[in-house]
Every structure is written in structure tokens, then in C-alpha cells.
Amino acid sequence: MFYQNQKQYAYTRVLLGPALAWARGSAACLNFNCLLILLPVCRNLLSFLRGTCSCCRRSVRKQLDHNLAFHKILGYTIALLTTIHTIAHLVNVERYYDGAQSANNTLKGILSSMGDDGDWVNPIRSKSETQSYLCFTTIAGVTGVVITLALILMITSSTEFIRRCYFEVFWYTHHLFIIFFAGLLIHGAGRLVRGQTSGSLESNSYESCHDKYSIWKKKSGDDDDHDHDDCYMPSFQGNEPATWKWIIAPIILYVLERLLRFYRSQQRVVVIKTVSHPSKALEIQMQKRGFKMEVGQYIFINCPLVSRLEWHPFTLTSAPEEDMFSVHIRSAGDWTDSLIKVFQEKADNPPCLQVDGPFGTASEDVFKYDVSMLVGAGIGVTPFASILKSIWYKFQNDDHRLKTKKIYFYWICRETGAFAWFADLLRSLEQEMISSGKDGFLNYRLFLTSWDSSIAGHAIINFDVAIDTVTGLKQKTSYGRPNWENEFTQVAETHPWSTVGVFLCGPQALGKTLQQCCHQHSSMDPRKVQFYFNKENF
Q1: What is the pLDDT of residues 151-186, one digit of tens each?
Q2: Over the stretch 15-35, which tens digit does the pLDDT of each residue have?
Q3: Digit-coded pLDDT (tens) for 321-375
Q4: Spatial separation of the C-alpha atoms in residues 423 and 425, rounded to whole Å
Q5: How far, in Å, CA of 329 to CA of 336, rounded?
Q6: Angle at which helices 67-101 and 19-37 cross, to 10°
Q7: pLDDT band for position 200 (50/70/90)?
Q8: Which of 258, 274, 275, 255 is nearest to 266 (CA)?
Q9: 101 and 111 in contact (C-beta within 8 Å)?
Q10: Which whole-number Å values give the CA distances from 39 to 43, 52, 194, 260, in the listed order?
Q11: HEC per residue, 478-506
Q12: Closest CA to 191 of 238, 155, 144, 122
């Protein structure tokens, strides 16, 4: 509205028309979105806020769990606004060119030929200059092309398919954001869009002089006492670049974030033990000076022998009470395949690792609910390993401060081998809870979604055996997928006055199902059972 209505841009609108307002309005929105987009990926900042918000309402604290979704929305918004901004400026360039080609006895022609000493309004200074010349020789044009190309590469490489199948492409291409922000800082330095100076507005109002361009006078220094009927040639100046004022603070904050993460990653990590589990899963146990964690948190790991630049997130499977920290890494791509291979080849002398973190997640709140439902799919069980281990230590230490009275644990796997590494932990929990008289605290269900006739037949034959033939646990393995409607109904009926936290580490489709069930089975009465959905996001 400012560029569309203000008098100082009246002559600029003669040349450019409404595209001026479209270009500047989208630029203002771009500044605001570029201010925000770095904040959701400042993981130390989010972890700090999660800690300081621990006394705040649950709904406020839960917003931090949507940081990546917010980051994506900002990215798509920037792409849309960049499209509008670019199209509007391409129209402006064409209008500038048309003005430069206009006859000298027209208002557009006179405006385009004015100001050889820098006091100009049309950046195309001669009839021989083309639109391409303006786009590829000016600061705004060159940086605009670079920024747009960087944004296109970042957006296209951020699709779900690329991130899942070609993570390295996403990883390297996404770091073009450095070029994007560098170009953004100097994009407006050329001051191509210009308006009338304040002194020019006083001596030449558009309303009284725009149609008298044939008798415009050149203002000299001693014309202060001019006749108000005189019309002087307007003078123009560009606005000071403003984008840097919007983005400099988040850039500084992000640089400090990266420096802190670099400092922590350089601290020495000692690999004390590695264990190869079925289903191509590798357990790595480590120690690091000053390392402190909470349940459900995650770290970033870098292995210089595999790649010096790539960092990948993994959920911690150890408990805060242990004197080491561990992760379970499943073969899921080129980098994880190479890492597992390196550790297998160098079992006696494991390679050096760099660790950054830990960082907070939604699972940190698991003990802040009366009842918790933990749902893991495949290797997605890792954050719950940390939680269940912590429960085991709390029972051993007879910790009475535990708010949670009941935990329901669901693990969904495609193959029997995936149960092996986790079965020992569940078996220890079973024994500890029975010995402490709290055998009703943990209710766990294991689901096998892919099996052949031999497994099914073996399960039928051993149906009456007290111990499950697949896991060796007292809880029998179920075949197929859980009926979530029944599970939520049963929990709601058993705990009619409780707050129930539902935690998922698994695929998006399962998350939508669980989130829908949380809404359907939460009571309209806030005093009765309420389900709160939480999902792990890296």
C-alpha cells in the first residue's frame, strides 16, 4: 500500500504501474520469512527453550516439536514469494525498457532520460541497453539470479523422495543457504527502485505538475523563493537497503549456534564397545567428557573415515543413569552402510567419531503424563529404549517421584530378527517389576507384520507354552497390526481421569492414524481423559 499510494513514488508508478507494489510487497514478506527460517534449525536454542518452558503449559511447550514442519512451511512460503517478486520485477524490467524507448516528448520518455549524474528513476540509461543487460549487469539482477537458482536447488532437493533415497544430495545442496543469505544481504545495494526526494516533493507535487512536463525547469541553488506556479524537474533517490536489518540478527544467532556445535563436536569421543545385532543394526557405546542427557534425546554423529562433512541424527538408546551413552544404527542408506562396514572391518580398533548434542525431543516429556503410550515401528523403538532403561534404574533406586503410573508400549516390526536386541531389555524389566511388586506398571505388546507359514505354524503349535517362541518373553507376539481404535478405547476406559501422552517414532502414515485417535478419544470435559500426540522429528 505504501508503494501503491505514496506521493514520492507517483512518477515511479508512471513507469512501472502496479508491478511496483507487487514487487515491493513480496520483498517485505520475504524479509520477514527469511528472518524466521533459520530459527527452527537452531537446535541448541530449541533445547534451551524446551528446558526453560518446562514450567509452562503443555500446549506451549509442544509447539517446539513442530520446528521442522514450521521450517518447511517457511521454505515453501519463501519460494512462493520469490516467484511473485521475480515475476513482478521482470514486468518492471520490461516497463523500464519501454520507458527508455518512449519518445522524448512524453512523460515516460522525459523521466527515463533524466538524471545522468545518478539522479535517475529509470536504470536503463540509453535506447541501446536491453532487458538482459539490466538483469545480468546490475547488483540486484546478478544477485537475484544467484539467489533464485540457489533456492530452486534447495527446494527441489528437499523433497521427501530425495531426502529418503539420496540424503547426500539433500545434505550438500541445502548448504547453498550460505550463498542465498550472502546474496540477500547485498541484493538491494544497487537501489534500482527509486522515489522522489523530500525536497523535490515540496517543489514539484505530482498532482499539479505531472501534466506540465514540457515546461519543467531545472532547479538551481538560488531558487528557494520560487513561484509556486513553476514546475521543476523531480529528483530521485533509492531507499537504503533494509534486508540486512531483518536477517542480521538470526544470522548472528545461527553462526553462534554453529560455533557452539563445532566446539562440542571437537571434544574427544571414546568408543568403548560395539555390538552387531540382527537386521543389520549396529550398537555403539561411547563416552565423552561432560556429556549429560535426558531420556529420548538424540545426537548427531560424524565419521571422518566415511565423510568429513556429513552429520546424521540418531536417538540415544542409553539411560541418563548410565555412565556411557549409546546409539543403535540400522542400515538404511549409503552412509549407514559404510559406517557399519567400517566398524565391522575395524572391530579391534574402531574408527574415530565426532558427536554433537544431545538435543531435546518430545520424548523428554514422557514422565510428565499420568499414562504414556509408546509406539515404535522397526528401529523407531530406539527413543523408548532409553525411556524403558531409565524406568529400570528408577525401580532399582526406588524412585518415588515418578508421576507416571502406567506405560503402554507397542512395537511393530516386519521381521523376527528385529526383536532380538531389544528382548534382553524387556526381559530385565519384566524381572525387575515382578521383584519390586510393580508388574502392572508396564504393559507391552509386540506386533509382527510380516511372517511366513512356518512361523505361523510354529506359533500355533507352541500356543500353550508360557514363553513366546519368537522373543522368549512372557508377553506373546501378536501377528498383524494393532487395532488402534480398540487400544485407545481400552486405555480411555481404564484411565478415565488421566492425561495420556502418546509418543510415536515411526512413519508419517501411522502418525496421522494415532493423531486422529487422540482427537476422537479425548473427552470434551477437560477434567476427564485427554490424549496428547507427540512425534519424533529430526
Answers
A1: 999 999 998 888 878 878 888 899 999 999 999 999
A2: 899 999 999 999 999 999 999
A3: 888 898 888 877 788 888 889 988 887 888 889 998 888 877 778 888 888 898 9
A4: 5
A5: 7
A6: 150
A7: confident
A8: 258
A9: no
A10: 8, 17, 33, 15
A11: EECCCCHHHHHHHHHHHCCCCEEEEEEEC
A12: 238
**pLDDT of 51 strictly over 90:** no
329 to 73, 161, 312, 381: CA distances (angstroms): 30, 21, 10, 12
CB-based contacts of 517, cutoff 8 Å, min separation 6:
484, 485, 488, 502, 531
* Residue matched to cell numbers 508419517: 508
Among 527, 524, 529, CA closest to 490: 529
Instruction: Provide Rg for the chain, Cα atoms.
Output: 32
Quote the CA–CA distance of 510 and 487 in Å, as a whole number: 14
* pTM over 0.90, yes/no: no
pLDDT class of 88 with cuts at 50, 70, 90: very high
Burial class of residue 281, CB neighbours in 10 A (0-12, 13-18, 19+) = buried
Q: Alpha helices, DSSP H only, in 102-138? A: 107-113, 131-137
Gap between the Cα atoms of 369 and 349, Å rounded: 43
Q: Distance between CA 366 and CA 511 in Å, rounded? A: 17
Q: Is the pLDDT of residue 146 over 90?
A: yes
The contacts found for 53-61 with CB under 8 angstroms, 24 or more apart, are 58/365, 58/368, 58/532, 61/365
Mean pLDDT, the chain, integer: 83
Residue 125's closest CA among 91, 101, 106? 101
In contact, 167 and 333? CB cutoff 8 Å: yes
Q: Decide if 115 contacts 236 (C-beta within 8 A).
A: yes
Handedness of CA 15, 21, 25, 30 (dihedral sign): negative
- Give the whole-angstrom CA distance, residue 279 versus residue 443: 25
